[in-house]
Write a structure and sequence with these properties.
The protein has 177 residues and is of the alpha/beta class. The protein has six helices and six strands, in the order ααααβαββαβββ. The protein folds into two domains: 41 residues, no CATH class; 112 residues, Aspartate Aminotransferase, domain 2 (3-Layer(aba) Sandwich), CATH 3.40.640.10. The chain is 36% helix and 11% strand. The N and C termini lie far apart (40 Å).
């Protein structure tokens, strides 16, 4: 784009300068350790992240897509099943559902939070529905209390996609994992 200047949305260089020394120390630790996959840094992260979220275990995976695929497989979602997903989400949520052979069933977001609208979920549930994937967006937790109640009443799994709201809470009960 010669001659045109892009409008900068986010200055990561400026933000990261505050963490320059910590980031370099971490990078050096990984480089000197010789492991960037399954090394001590990953184990340390898993332990710290589990403690932060007040859960027993945390397993690091390559990315959010892999995490959702593993969760879908662990809950038995398979070919021919349906999974309720937000219509407003990163494509990985839908790709994970498609990858295991299931069909994503979109539900529109609430206009004030952009998270899935709980009141629209039940009308999308069929005998093929196996799970709901609420996605916590922009640091905001979806209405998990309501979603969990809907899931319980319909014998469905809930797989929380929390890539964008780690550590956030919902009415003091739900903590985004």
């Amino acid at each position: 784009m010669k001659g045109n200047k892009a409008i900068q949305f986010l200055d990561l260089k400026k933000i990261n300068l505050d963490f320059k020394n910590e980031l370099r120390q971490s990078l050096n630790k990984v480089l000197e350790g010789g492991w960037f996959v399954l090394g001590s840094s990953v184990s340390e992260f898993e332990t710290a992240y589990a403690k932060h979220n007040e859960v027993k275990y945390c397993s690091g995976v390559a990315n959010g897509l892999d995490a959702i695929i593993l969760a879908l497989k662990a809950t038995g979602v398979w070919l021919g099943d349906e999974v309720i997903v937000p219509s407003n989400t990163y494509i990985a949520t839908w790709l994970a559902v498609s990858y295991v052979g299931a069909t994503p069933v979109p539900v529109e977001p609430k206009l004030d939070t952009y998270n899935i609208t709980p009141s629209l979920i039940e009308e999308k549930i069929t005998k093929k529905t196996k799970a709901i994937i609420p996605v916590n967006l922009y640091g905001q937790v979806a209405e998990l209390n309501t979603i969990m109640e809907i899931a319980k009443n319909n014998n469905l799994f809930v797989i929380e996609d929390n890539a964008q709201a780690q550590g956030a809470t919902c009415k003091e009960k739900w903590r985004a994992l």
